Amino acid sequence: MTRKHAGILLSTGVACLTGILSACGGAGAQIADGGIRGTGSSVGPVSGFGSVFVNGIEFFTDGIQNRQVISNDGIATEGDLDKGMILRVEGNWDDSLTGEARELIYDDTFRGPIDRVATGADSGSQFTMFGQTIRFDRRTVMRLGNNTSLEQVVATGGHVRVSAWRTGEGYRASYVGVLDALPNGWVELEGVAGSLTQGEFSISGQRIVLSDNADYFDSLDDDELAGKRIEVEGELRADGVLLARTLRLSDDERRFLDREDGEVEISGPISELQIAENSFRVNGLLVRYSSETEFDDFVEADLSSGVLIEVEGEFRNGVLIAGEMELLEDDAELEARVESIDLASGMLKVGGVAVHINDGRTLIDFDGDWQTVLAVGSFLEIEGRERADSQGNIFIEAVSLDIDDADQDESFHARGKFTRDNLEGQVLSILGARIRITDEDDLDELQACDGDAVKVKYRSSGTGGYTATEVECKD
Fold first, then answer.
1. 130, 166, 305, 325: least buried by Cβ within 10 Å?
2. Which residues belong to the signal peptide in this entry (predicted)?
3. pLDDT tens per residue, the chain (475 residues)?
4. In angstroms, rounded to a whole number, what is the distance separating the alpha carbons of residues 334 and 340?
5. Spatial contact of 304 and 384, defined as CB atoms under 8 Å apart
C-alpha cells in the first residue's frame, strides 16, 4: 500500500528572496548595487564558496550545525555542494551583500543514466534522461570525473546528477556531475504524470510502477497524479522500468506553496512569453510586469524565450509581480591572455578588453580564488554581458570564467555587438578593444555586415596593438 505524508519534505520558511542588480564602471570604478534586502529565501545556482554565494549574496553558514544541507540526494553538508548546483538558502542579508544562512536546501532535478547525447549545428548540445531533453552550454558546470565527455559517460554506463532550470522545450542544465554511486541506489526524475492504471503510469514515455509501500508527499494521491508535474524517486530495474518509492510535487511546484504577499527573487530561462499580456514564466512560475517594473540595462524588446533572467518582486495569488528584472544571458565571448590585474576593483585587461569579475555573480569554473590563481599571461575563456560605464567605456561583466590549460597558438577570439559605428577606416572596435583590419576581404565583410554582432580572431602585435586574422559577421 502507499503512504501519504501531509508535510512538505523541505522546510519552507518565509518567501523573501534577495535581489541584487549590479552595475559596474571601468577600471578602478565604484560598483553600485541595489535591490531588496531582508529575511527569507534566495534560490539560484551556487557561484562560489568560502561561505556560499547565491544570487550575488555571500551567505555565511557558521550558524548551521555542521553546515548541514537539507537533502535526500546524498548532499549532506556544504562541502558536498558544487558550483552550478541550484540551491535554496533560508536566511537574512543586508546592503553589504553578505548574510547569515539558517538553512541550505538542495534537490536534484534528474539523477541516473544518460540515454543519449546529441551535439551539432541542428541539435545544439543536449542529452536525454528518462525521455526528457536537457540542453547544456558553456555556462553549464560539468564535473565528469575521469570521463572526457558525456558520450564516454554513456559508453561506460555511468550515472549523473543534474541540477537544471525548466524551459519551454525541456530543461537547461546548470550543473552536470558524474556519480560514483546512486544515493540509496535510487534514480530521480520529474515531469508531468500520465494517467495511473493498475499501479502504473508514465512521464515523457518513462514507464513507472508504484512499489507496494510508495510514499506520497505534498497531499498527492493516486487520484491526483494525472496532469501534475511531480518528482519521482526509486530503483531503475534491469528492464528499464522505474519502481517508484517516493512521489512529491516537483521543485518548481513545491517551492512557493503557502507563500503570499512575500518578496521573491527567482532566476531562470524565460518561457511562454506573452508581450501583449506583459507576462512570461520562469521555472513554471507566472511573472507579470508593468510600467512600474524597473528594467536593469535592457528594454522589453530584449525579452525572448530561453533567455536567462532574474526577477524580483512580490508574490500575490500565485503570480510574481515584478518590481525589478535583469537579463543574465551573455552577449559577449572572449578567449585571450590576461594582460593586467587590478585586485581592488576586480578588473582585468584580457586581450585588450576590460573585464569585471563580481565575486558573488561570476561563476569561476576552476579551483581556488581567482585573485591568487590568475596571473598575467593566463589564458582565459570568458562569457559575459557587454556593458558601458558612465563615461561610455566598454567592458565585459563576466558571467563565467575558466582557465584554458591547452597550448595556445597565441590567437585570441572575441564576439561582441556590432554597428557600422564600430568600424573606423581599418580599425574595428569590439568589446572596447581596437583591432586593425589588414585583409581587404575581412574589411569588405564588415562593411557589408547586416548582423548585430561580429566574431573576430586576432593577435597581439606585441606593441600594445592588435591585428585581426579572421572576421565573421554574425546574425
1. 305
2. 1-23
3. 455 554 433 333 333 333 333 333 333 333 233 344 556 778 889 988 889 998 778 899 999 999 999 999 999 999 999 999 999 888 887 777 788 999 999 999 999 999 999 986 555 699 999 999 999 988 899 999 998 899 999 999 999 999 999 888 899 999 999 999 999 999 999 999 999 999 999 999 999 999 999 998 888 887 778 999 999 999 999 999 999 999 998 877 666 655 555 667 788 889 999 999 999 998 888 999 999 999 988 899 999 998 889 888 887 888 889 999 988 888 899 999 999 999 888 999 999 999 999 877 788 877 667 878 889 999 999 999 998 888 989 999 998 888 886 656 679 999 999 988 899 999 999 999 999 999 999 999 898 887 789 999 999 987 779 999 999 998 7
4. 15
5. no
- Sign, CA dihedral 83-87-90-96, equals positive
Quote the pLDDT of residue 20. 31
Q: Which domains does the chain have, with CATH numbers?
A: 3-106 (no CATH), 110-181 (2.40.50), 185-253 (2.40.50.320), 269-327 (no CATH), 332-474 (2.40.50.320)
Name residues whose C-beta falls within 8 Å of residue 309's C-beta, 6 or more positions apart in sequence.
267, 268, 269, 270, 282, 303, 325, 326, 327, 328, 329
